[in-house]
Amino acid sequence: MTAERSDPIESVRTAFDDHLARADETAAVALVLDLLARGVGAEDVLLDLIAPAQAAVGERWVTNEWSVAQEHAATHVSNRAVAALAAVTVVPDHPLGSVAVACPDGEWHTLPAHIVAEVLRLRGFAVRFLGAGVPTAHLISYLHQNGSDLVALSCMLAVRLPRIYRTIEACRLARVPVLAGGAGFGPDGIWARALGADLYARTAVDAADLLAEQWPPPLTGAPAVDHLADGEYAQLVSRRGDLLRHLVDHLRRCFPPMRRCAGERHEDAVEDLGFLVDFLAAGVFVDDPRVFTDFLVFLADLLAPRGIPPAGLDLVVRALCEPLSDLPRTLTHLAAGRGRLERAGHTWTDA
Amino acid sequence: MDQAVVVCDAAGLPSWCNVQAERLFPQLRIGEPLRGPLSRAMAEGVDCFETVSDGRRLSGHRVVLQGHGTLAGHCVWLVRDDSAAHERQNELMAERARSAFLAEAGKQLAASLHHGRTVRAVVRVAVPALADTAILFLPVRGRCVAWHLYGPDECAGQLPAVALDQAPSVAHALRGLVEQPVLCDWQEVVRLGGALPRDPSPAGQALVVTLPGPGMPAGVLVLAHGPQRTGFGAADVELARQFAARASLALEAATFYAEQVHTAAVLQDGLEPDPLPHVAGVHLGAAYRPARETLRLGGDFYQVRADAEGGVGFFFGDVCGKGVEAAVFAGRVRQSLRSLALVESRPVRMLQLLNEALWEGDPTPFTTLVTGSVGSARDGALVVVLAGGGHVPPLVLRKDGRVDEVHIGGTLVGALPDPDFHQTEIRLAAGELLLLYSDGVTEARGGPTEQEMYGERRLMRDLAACLGMPAGAVAERIDLRTGQWLAGADHDDLAVLAVQAPALAPSADVERPR
Q1: A-chain residues within 8 Å CB-CB of B507?
Q2: What is the mean pLDDT of chain A?
Q3: HSE-CB of B373 using CA atoms within 13 angstroms
Q4: Sheet holding A150-154, edge to edge
Q5: Are residues B467 and B341 in the same domain?
Q6: pLDDT level of residue B70 (50, 70, 90 thresholds)
Q7: A229 or B324: which carries more pLDDT confidence?
Q8: Which residues pair with B395 in a beta bridge?
């Protein structure tokens, strides 16, 4: 990216951030259209303005500077800006091939997938963006109806991996290659390959380059989930309710912030604990403790600005060991989690 | 004894042999030096060998005679001709390879229901097992014949149907006049011209295989060998025929599916919600998630249209049941409402007329319904006149973060001969928002126990947390919260519609609920 290409974008970045902060869709869209009219490349607007601005939005939510509603409103505006950009950019008549871009069932972060869809479209592919939370049955019937050459699946949270596995399997059965992308697929997309995705790209540009290099992409994916034969993942899913009750009881006894929260706050806490158990299960599903440990670190960063001591996580992980003592592989994930919390200085000491 | 036996003396010269040995080694002469494989084995000093000699697979081993008699120092070669056994083995392997090919072909052909992809799969799977170049000609459509070629390269195109006169073998097969695979001169295919290959195949012949269909053939596959291969043997022809039968089934299924999908798509087009209009002074947002039927048809419906006064008119409803039946009834309701809107503007009267149109002496099917007209007041607020029957009360998000229910009341539409409908009016100040939702939202089962309903209380709370958000984002957020609550569980049709008065001066520091 050359300096002179970035300049016009740099100069409007503050204004764009401001439009996102005020959820001012009209202004954000006008700003983007103005950049295009001034000759700034559409791909640069997507990747050097909208994407980094959105990353900053996520950051403001993590640090509790913004509420989840503000984050959501800003994301909505970013999505509208991408759609407005798409509506005014012209692409070649003869597409290189057809791509269906989807956030699979349970995945609600549409913006990264939306940006990938637009970059691929700008690079000459016929792209259909299917949106958020696309059930596998809808995706497969779309493929049968439209004969797409490739499915691009986005996953921003590793907790979705078990469900995405089913989607990838269904695409494999339909013999449509899968390109995986998004932070949820782990460092260098390691979990994308474990689930049988044919390709992985870290960024939208990588994705476009990868497809340009070899089109149509061959079916090469091979899932590596033999460890599921031990049944531990199935156990974790079926015991989820019991585990949550156990955790809530335990925290009510030992963790003062939990004792204090009632009603809706209590429900939120249970929801967060459910998330934690789901991440543990997702890690067991792909047989990699990093799914769980990375989530603990993320959660610790989230809790601290919200006045909840992250050491409480250590208490939670310890409390899970006893009811899961018959699941040896799961125990190694819990142990890894405790180790990671200890290194981050979040060890719980009983008062 | 079916082995050849050759006895050699101490000097290594043959001293006796049996009839089998004479047949196997016609040049063998008693007392003369050995030739061929036996001589090589003696020279190498080995006791056993396996070799191919004069097209036969031979395996031999040597026994050295012990003792002091006249035969001392002699050796005996026992040689077996394995050619026949080997041939049988080869045939078995070939048969296995053919079965494996057909099994794999079946899998690949069944993978897609998309006609274009299936066509591609047919020619790709045929190469290299059946041929080095495969061309699939599809039935004549609109006086054209589409073809797809896979070989050293892949290409596709169309021919005018009359051009087929140049290739009678292909033309006859395509018209269903030939059942069995036939050989034709490759020149016939070359004469078709267009983008088809111009260079004659070295083998000179191509195999034309009909893809049998229920009426007319599903297509014709033309197979050609490259210079490395000999012509088509009986086994090749039989394999091609069996492959064609599988390819034909796959193409038939894809054609049938495409027709069904087209029918469904045409119907669906009239049943899916229209995109929201852009109207100055009214912010709109909607989310629509039908129950998990693959056709995306549901019994929730809504429509928003700009009206002549610069505001919008809308309706929102939920038909009993789900799936195609519900969608078709919802389509009837929508059509009726559109027609009634032309002749009746009083909301309650319109609902009564609608009820008359839908009432068939039977309580089902019925629909819940809210109709509304949105206009601007002088102070920038919106005035919304709501009327309806049987629908869950819409919610209003006030600018202080409070959430109110709007009770309209009324009976279900189409369920009773003498219904009762009501109307009410609300004001939306700047930034305030009206949310209509279907009961699929509040009745979504999930949460920590996976059994609990999302419920009105959670909906109201999640709506309250949307304070400061534009209507589109609010609709998305309610959809997201319901989806998170469901966590992948099955659900009924879900729909939400948000109508919002634009905020006067958007402010970054709205009060921040969780």
Answers
A1: 22
A2: 92
A3: 13
A4: A126-129, A98-102, A150-154, A178-181, A199-201
A5: yes
A6: confident
A7: A229
A8: B405, B435
Asked if A148 contacts A121 with a C-beta cutoff of 8 angstroms, the reply is no
Window 90-119 of A: residues touching B by CB (8 A cutoff) are 105-106, 108
Instruction: Tell me which of B241, B264, B287 is where a domain ends.
Output: B264
Q: How far is CA B303 from CA A82, B313, B333, in A?
A: 25, 8, 11
* B14 within 8 A of B79, measured Cβ to Cβ: no
Contact by Cβ (8 Å): B119, B42: no
Answer whether residue B403 is part of any domain: yes
Based on the structure, what is the number of domains in chain A?
Answer: 3
Q: Which residues of B touch A146 (CB under 8 A)?
A: 114
Question: CB contacts < 8 Å between A and B, how many?
Answer: 108
Q: Do B422 and B456 sit in the same domain of this protein? A: yes
How many domains in chain B? Answer: 3
Say which of A108, A163, A176 has its CB closest to residue B483: A108
Q: What distances in angstroms separate CA B173 from CA B184, B194, B207, B209, one per listed residue? A: 11, 20, 11, 7
Instruction: Find the Cα–Cα–Cα–Cα dihedral B261, B263, B269, B270, rounded to 10°.
Output: -150
Comparing CB atoms, the residue among A22, A68, A106 nearest residue B506 is A22
DSSP SS3 for A232? helix
Chain-chain contact of A144 with B470 (C-beta, under 8 angstroms): no
Cα–Cα distance between B34 and A332 in angstroms, integer? 73
Instruction: Give ipTM to 2 decimals.
Output: 0.85
Angle between helix A263-286 and helix A240-254 axes, rounded to 10 deg? 130
pLDDT (tens digit per residue) in B231-248: 899 999 999 999 999 999
Residue A339 has pLDDT above 70, yes or no: yes
Q: Which of A224, A240, A259 is the last residue of a domain?
A: A224
pLDDT above 60: residue B507:
no
Residues of A in contact with B488 (CB under 8 A): 105-106, 163
User: What value does the mean pLDDT take over residues B500-511?
Assistant: 62
User: What pLDDT is attached to residue B324?
Assistant: 80
- Provide the angle, in degrees to the nearest 10, between the axes of the packed helices B234-271 and B83-110: 10
Residue B407 shares a structural domain with residue B494: yes
Which candidate from A80, A145, A274 shows the least CB-CB separation from B448? A274
Q: Please report, rounded to a whole number, the percentage of residues in chain A having pLDDT higher than 90.
A: 77
| CA distance, residue A255 to nearest chain B CA (Å) | 20
Give the mean model confidence (pLDDT) for residues A11-36.
94
Strand stretches in A251-339, DSSP E = none
Q: Which of B265, B292, B465 sits opposite A137 (nearest CB)?
A: B292
**Enclosing H/E stretch for B303:** strand B300-306
Tell if the pTM clears 0.80, that is, is over it: yes
